[in-house]
Amino acid sequence: MDSLHKLVEIIGRHTPGDGIRSTAIPGVSLVRSCTPTAPMPVVYEPTLCLIVQGRKRVTAGATTYVYDAANYLIASVDVPVMGSVIEASEQEPYLCLVVDLDMPVLSDLVLRYPADDKDGAPAAGIQLGETTPELLDAAARLAGLLDAPGDIAELAPLTVREILYRLLIGRGGAMVRQMVKADSRLNQIAKAIVWLRNHYAEACRIDDMADIAGMSRSTFHAHFKAVTAMSPLEFRTHLRLQEARRLMVAEALDAAGAGYRVGYESPSQFSRDYVRLFGLPPARDASRLRGSAWVPVRESGALAAQA
Prior knowledge:
- The protein has three domains: about 5-180, Jelly Rolls, CATH 2.60.120; about 185-230; about 235-290, Arc Repressor Mutant, subunit A (Orthogonal Bundle), CATH 1.10.10.
- Helix content is about 45%, strand content about 20%.
- The protein is built from twelve helices and twelve strands.
């Protein structure tokens, strides 16, 4: 059995139902869906998404990524996106292995395997890369530890390290290096993103975020959009609306209360922005979601809206 088919068998066996499942391996989760899904909001944190069966579409700002078993997705910073499974069936469900990126391990690998990378414009916060046989082999051995729980503590860190090494030496290695270099443009933008995620409900000035990133206003704006495919204010709007949607569904807040909680002073502006992102007025959308199986959850580095 080759590595891909082994992964399909293991993940299928350890995901008896649809959804995201954490595992006994720290920082590793499994995803399954037997049907295509409607676009749902998710905030990707630094993570590797390795599809072994099916296909998914992810949209960040105006940029769309479609990937499957031939290509992995890696997110280097926190990015709000709309994600949907676009190829799945009962016979061949969508199956994905998700691995959180361990920054201390990445930092050590970058020091051990230096490269002469020139840090000009920052890499995009989301990139696709070729899923090589070597990466698949390491992923299969990692997933295989779910059948040998006594080996996880000793062998999982070594296998995760190998997976990160494969990412580092692959075509997307330059982005991985930028993630852990303290003076890289990507790392500077990441600091501003972390701040913005913690203060999205507040009135924040571009100049303040630029200061946190250590850049001029114009440079910060250009690099922020290169990384996230959104302007800083668009990014903040996505964070606000995703949280407002969660509040209305999970905590039964009305639209006005949810909008106010996430920082909107104008209900009409909140409604306009909401319709633009989700396609329905807030109250109608929340009512629809409460009548479905949609549940907002936080698992394995991602705030996922799962069906």
